[in-house]
Structure formats: structure tokens, C-alpha cells
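Deliverable D2.4 — example input (C-alpha cells):
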């Protein structure tokens, strides 16, 4: 079952979208404002969001920009704003698709199916370990179904550790792999700081880690679970 969040203040239109998408594969959650949307996202995971721009408590584009700081969940913008500049702005802020009103519900359903197929491909990138779920393509991370926010650097380091579970990775190798911005010199303290931040976010007891272990004098490893 795929959860779809519909953020649309026109209740009749929202009901029409829900009816058009009704199937055993989809569960639609309808909200009329951004505050309600944020509350729903705290308790449910969504595979796609249908987002209006002009909402009672804010602008959908501001919401999209904020969302893209921590999530790559597919977003289809649905709006009466049909100027070319509006479309370009929405896409540049991270929308996956942009549909202007009025529109065909059949076309909307086809666009939703297309975005979800892409999402399924991205889901194959998900790594599940113990109670963790790490989706690097979608930038969605959780522990026991509770979301975890990771910076881009933390994501890169975590991915390298996970892809080499049980192997000891030297500090120099990790520095070279994570900080690939062409800098001639990177302070190795940056690695220690990033390791500490990852432990603080992932470990039950960061001072006595179960997962990201230090191999003294060599480097770090993700302990096999």
C-alpha cells in the first residue's frame, strides 16, 4: 500500500483526486493546509505528495523548498499558476512534476503512476539493517520507524561504512572518499567530528557504539548485524 498525501484546500477537488486514485494500491490522506500536512508527515510515511501552491497558511513552494532539505519524496505540484516562470520555479525547487488547473484526472493518475514507478526504482537503493532503514536515493533515513535527519557529508560517510560492513576502513581512505571537493588538505578532525555526529544520531549509547566502531590506530567499521 502506497500512501499519497494530498495538500489541497479545495475540498471538492481533493475528493475528486482521491476518487480518481482510489485502488487497492493507494491510500490517500487529504489535508487542506500546510500545518496539517506537517503533522501527518510526522506520523506517516508517504510515497508521493500532491501539492497545491496557494494554501490558507502559506505558499506550497516554500513548503517544497523546506521539504527538499531532508526528503526526496516525489512531489507533483497542482496549481492554477500556469505562467512559465511559475513552472520553472517549481521544478527548480525540486518538484518532480507540475500540472496546471484545469486538468484531466486520468492524466493526473498516469503522472502519479509514473512518479511511483520511479520511486520503486529508488527504493531498491534502500539498505535495511537491524531497526534502521537508509534510503540514499530518497534521502530518507529512520530508526525503528522514527525519521533521522542526516547532512550530505553524514550520508556519504554512512553509505561508505554500510557498503563495507565488517571491513575496517582506514581514516585516510574515508577522508579521501567523503571529502572529494578537490581540496588539497582536509583536517582529519573533520572525520572524527562527522563520526561523532553519526553516532549521536544512530546509536542508543553513542559513547559505547554498537554499529560504528573505532578500530584504534586504523580507522572505523560498521559492525555486522
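Example output (designed residues):
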Amino acid at each position: 500500500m502506497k500512501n499519497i498525501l494530498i495538500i489541497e484546500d479545495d475540498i471538492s477537488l481533493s475528493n475528486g483526486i482521491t476518487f480518481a486514485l482510489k485502488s487497492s494500491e493507494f491510500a490517500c490522506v487529504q489535508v487542506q493546509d500546510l500545518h496539517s500536512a506537517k503533522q501527518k508527515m510526522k506520523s506517516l510515511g508517504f510515497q508521493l505528495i500532491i501539492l497545491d501552491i496557494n494554501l490558507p497558511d502559506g505558499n506550497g513552494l516554500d513548503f517544497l523548498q523546506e521539504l527538499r532539505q531532508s526528503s526526496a519524496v516525489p512531489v507533483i505540484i497542482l496549481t492554477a499558476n500556469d505562467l512559465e516562470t511559475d513552472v520553472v520555479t517549481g521544478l527548480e525547487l525540486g518538484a518532480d512534476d507540475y500540472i496546471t488547473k484545469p486538468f484531466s484526472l486520468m492524466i493526473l493518475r498516469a503522472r502519479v503512476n509514473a512518479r511511483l514507478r520511479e520511486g520503486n526504482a529508488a527504493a531498491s537503493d534502500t539498505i535495511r539493517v537491524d531497526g534502521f532503514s537508509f534510503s540514499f536515493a530518497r534521502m530518507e533515513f529512520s530508526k525503528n520507524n522514527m525519521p533521522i535527519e542526516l547532512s550530505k557529508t553524514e550520508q556519504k560517510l554512512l553509505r561508505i561504512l554500510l557498503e563495507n560492513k565488517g571491513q575496517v576502513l582506514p581514516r585516510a581512505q574515508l577522508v579521501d572518499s567523503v571529502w572529494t571537493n578537490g581540496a588539497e588538505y582536509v583536517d582529519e578532525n573533520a572525520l572524527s567530528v562527522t563520526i561523532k555526529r553519526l553516532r549521536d544520531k544512530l546509536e542508543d549509547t553513542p559513547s559505547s557504539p554498537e554499529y560504528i566502531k573505532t578500530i584504534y590506530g586504523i580507522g572505523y567499521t560498521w559492525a555486522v548485524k
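The chain has eight helices and 14 strands.
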